[in-house]
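Dear support,

I submitted the protein below through the web form. The confirmation email said the job was done, but the results page showed an empty box. After a refresh the structure appeared. I'm attaching both so you can tell me whether what I see now is the final result or a partial one.
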Amino acid sequence: MLMRKLTEAEENLLKKFVTNLYGPVYFIHSLPEFIIPPINSKVSRKDTSWRLNILESLTSGDLDISDFLTTPDIPLDEAMQKAKAFHEKWVEKFGHSSIAEQNLMHLCIEDTSRFLSGDIELMNKRPSYIEWSQRYQRPNRDRFVIPPELENYPELKEKFIKVWNVSFDVYEMLISKLTDYLKLTVEKNKHESDKAYIGRISKIAFEDARYALLLSAKTSFAVALNALDLQDIVRKLQSHGTKEAEILARNIIDEAEKIAPSMMRHLSPSKYQLTVNKEMEYLVNGYDLEDVSVDSDVELIDYTGKSGDMTFLDILTMHIIFSYTGKPVESIKNLVMKLGKEEKANIVKSASSKIDQFDHLIEPFRSVRYKFQLRLSEAAWHQLLRHRMINFNAYKPTIENGYTVPPNIEKAGCTDVLKRAIDEAEKLYLELHEKLPETSSYVVTNAHRRIVLMDTDLWAFDHYANLRCTHEAQWDIRNISFKMLDLIKEATPEVVEFLARRKQS
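What the results page shows now:
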């Protein structure tokens, strides 16, 4: 991310609020909590370091926070020592980890690979992330990560850089060709200025062109998390298997110790974390798996009530009645089995009939679940994994499941242009997979597909569909979402009326 050289006065001001002025990893601290989200929100659509956004807000920005800052005369060194002693006693000696859960931290990670950022978001479900977006911003040619493992393999490193440049050349060519195509096919809105019109179709162009880019493209993200979850992520980074993750873990520890030294404990990965992935991969690869083709991008492979004595409607009705009577489950089950289908459907309808587009369903709707198998592009996957209330199982990025061609690229006659980037990436992937397998995922493109298992309750899917089954959602994840929605409505028609209720405009 863009970070200019600061003046001495700017450095003296900013270092009061961040742990590092120029490095890629740092923590924001000593700012009022309500100030940090607006600062973070700028980054997904603005290619500048969080530090510059803070500096702007401290001085002449649209969010003047100087009135909210105080400089009390507190002996911080003494306070830090007492806090450290307290934590060592209660967190270390007595294992009172809830104290670490109360230690909220704001971590900023800049210029890490898109490959690693996706894995980090799967490492712990509790933190909140906001990420630099390829949908809204155009990356630069020099913004990509070269896996540190390649430093000892100069020929592979040279090939890696060449393939990145090919993918970026294709990216720029697609932007140009798609922009020309969209000028002919997308009408200008009434009262829309020429500048706004070009901006709108340009966004569509580079949103689709990004399917040519590799997962080695750099991204940046901020994460709000507690110290306990930070410890968990640091351990998992160290057992990730890539040097990029190992270096990032060390940088996080160094920066965290500046503001919460007593919380930086239990950071070494366990024997289990260090060995389980390799051992399981070795074990399962010993089985002779049938080569089964995946014919559908979305398959509903299981759901509550698909088999057994009680149907989906029975189970949902039972949980609703329990939540409002507190009677023993057996008595409620006996009642539900006596009720007619229409009466049970009416109970479900009553529990959802007045719901608005911004409401969440009541808790009993968490009791019924759906499990999907999805085949989706890396571009769509990086949007899907933002939904923290949904459970995912995903294998690492690979070229084995084909790739997605954006419809505009196909209509513009540019499929062969995209395929040029894909072909070069796949050649290098195969070579890296043989010689340095831990680096092969870096050359997977945004177009390549993963197979993902998605396990969601109805409450979480309702929230998801309300966001992704709209015209504002990106076309790729929107298409997948409507396919899931159709399958749910077919299997459990009792929920047809309230799902995806957000306005479609």
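Response: this is the final, complete result; the empty box was a page-load delay. Residues 489 and 496 are 5 Å apart (CA to CA).
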